[in-house]
Amino acid sequence: MDPLPDPAPLASKLRNTLVRYHSIGDGEWRVAKKTKDATVWRKPSEEFSGYLYKAQGVVEDVTNRIVDHIRPGPYRLDWDSLMTSMDIMETFEENCCVMRYTTAGQLWNIIAPREFVDFSYTTSYEDGLLTCGISLDYGEVRPNFVRGFNHPCGWFCVPLKDSPSHSLLTGYIQTELRGMLPQSAVDTAMSSTLANFYSDLKKALKT
């Protein structure tokens, strides 16, 4: 188990990595799934042997409220059907923490429940916000869970210029689920999970 890192340089590096992903040209992405709520693309990850996924859709709400539903906090467990528990382990400052969370089994439990410990950071970006995270090797792994690993991930949320009550939400996710899993099952699950994330989030914001 590693000690906790110094949050400031880790937050800065994480933000820079996400901004770099955000500037990747359209030609490098391949569409993986399209629904009425979101489009999901993917490209080979630079971090591990899987994919970096990009998801994008317009969400009818203001940026701050959307990000409050996504980042670690009381809202996320209420609406995110994949997440089964979440604990804040350390808080560095208001926008920076370490959290441990667990996810439900997927694809008829081909993918067993997972546990993650992530460093999470929320900061301003253009006229909106970026909330981003990366997994840490920290804390004991609980029985009955496989410890997964999130390489740099994040959500950019910016108001639409001509309709500030709507926001463009763009996510970058690259999750190494670990354990003995067929890659095709992981890829199917990731595309569907990201598309469902948008529909679940929209329902939660309307309540």
Give an overview of the whole structure:
There is one protein chain. The protein has 207 residues and is α+β, with helices and mostly antiparallel strands. It has a single domain, classed as START domain (Alpha-D-Glucose-1,6-Bisphosphate, Chain A, domain 4). The chain has helices spanning 7-22, 63-70, 74-79, 183-206; strands at residues 30-34, 39-44, 51-59, 83-93, 96-103, 114-125, 128-135, 146-147, 149-150, 153-160, 163-173, 175-176. The strands form two sheets. Strands 1, 2, 3, 4, 5, 6, 7, 8, 10 and 11 form a ten-stranded mixed beta sheet that branches. A two-stranded antiparallel sheet has the order 9-12. It is globular. The mean pLDDT is 92. This is STAR4 protein. Keywords: Lipid-binding.
Rg to the nearest angstrom? 16 Å
Q: How would the global form be characterised?
A: globular
Estimate the mean pLDDT confidence.
92
Low-confidence stretches: none
The portion of residues assigned to helices is: 25-40%
Task: Report the count of strand segments.
Answer: 12
Which fold name corresponds to the CATH topology?
Answer: Alpha-D-Glucose-1,6-Bisphosphate, Chain A, domain 4
Report the portion of residues in β strands: 35-45%
Total of domains: 1
Largest sheet: 10 strands, mixed
CATH class: Alpha Beta
The helix/strand order is HEEEHHEEEEEEEEEH
